[in-house]
Amino acid sequence: MNIVIVTDDGYVQHAAVMLTSLFESNSSNRFHIFVFTNDISGENYSRLERLCAAYGNSISVHYPEKELLHNSNIDIMRLNSGGWSKMIYHKLFMPLILPKSVERCLFLDVDMVIVDDLAPLYNIKMVDYNIIAAVEDLLSCIPRKKALGLAMSDLYINSGVMVCDIEQWRKEEKRRPIFDFVYKWSDRVINEQDVIAAYMKGRIQLIPIRWNMVGCNYLRKKNVFPKYYEELTNARRHPAIHHFCTLIPPWYADSPHPFRKLYIKFLKIYAEKIGISVNLHLPYKNMPKSHWQKLRHVIANVLNFMDIIRQPGYVLHKWKY
């Protein structure tokens, strides 16, 4: 299986944790990892190489901004990214960066852990010449649809997990270069998900929520479209991929994510596999200002768990699904 990730030195530990979870949960599968980056040190890349080798998998690194400028005269730095790093656009150029031998790939964000076999996802049948298969985004995508001039029936996906038909995408790239599209839409798009929704309109296929369970899918208040309520209940009980976006991630001590311990579990396995030490003393994202503030937070969680109060932003525990 061809897996594409985007990372740099700031996120390389999270990438290593995600890859460890991928390899541990898919011991019967073999992978080639394509790392897209702007900046990764020799030491950090060596660690990823050693990790992949420990599981019998392979890895290679690409520098999209340099390669695209050199090979295709495409300057990603000219694109509007709404204040985000231009690295958010790397995934849009997979058809131009990946070797010609790659006809399909799975793109994975690095802020996640994998807890199931990915073969059924990777081998999903694409219908009607669709290019991407992904999970529909949350209700918060509605304003973005309006800003892009899309209909409510048009699909807007979370791009953290995408099965990509690279062969079909290359054909579309020849017909409509995606760089030209993004540059033309620079006054409307603010990130790669905007681009995918507009550029891939009519070429997107949906997959079950369990393949991309974002953090706020565990809130008491449901943030998915109502058509997914029943599916969400099952996905909470049987998730395949935990995507740590939308909540304080588990590399902070104050993460409320119900599966936050999985991050530490795979971090330890990663460290043991390649023989390094890691810091397990997690910092606070939002340090409590006082002991009283921390106590109030604990009391609120207890009252929510007992359903005495029902705050919509309360993160449900596993035994409450």
Q: What is the CATH top level name of the domain at 2-129 and 163-192 and 207-214?
A: Alpha Beta
Number of helices: 12
- Gross geometry: globular
Mean pLDDT: 95
Distance between the termini: 33 Å
Q: Order of SSEs, N→C?
A: EHEHEHHEEHEHEHHHEEHEHH
Strand order of the largest sheet: 3-2-1-4-7-6-8
Quantity of strands, as a count: 10
Helix content: 25-40%
Main β sheet profile: 7 strands, mixed
CATH homologous superfamily of the domain at 2-129 and 163-192 and 207-214 - what is it? Spore Coat Polysaccharide Biosynthesis Protein SpsA, Chain A
What CATH architecture of the domain at 2-129 and 163-192 and 207-214 would you give? Alpha-Beta Complex
- Structural class given helices, strands, pairing? alpha/beta
Tell me what portion of residues adopts beta-strand conformation.
5-15%
Structural commentary:
The protein is of the alpha/beta class and 321 residues long. Among the domains are: 2-129 and 163-192 and 207-214, Spore Coat Polysaccharide Biosynthesis Protein SpsA, Chain A; 288-321, no CATH class. Helix content is 36%, strand content 14%. The strands form two sheets. The chain has a seven-stranded mixed sheet, sandwiched between helices. It has a three-stranded mixed sheet with strand order 5-10-9. The longest helix is centred in the C-terminal third of the chain and has 15 residues, at 291-305.
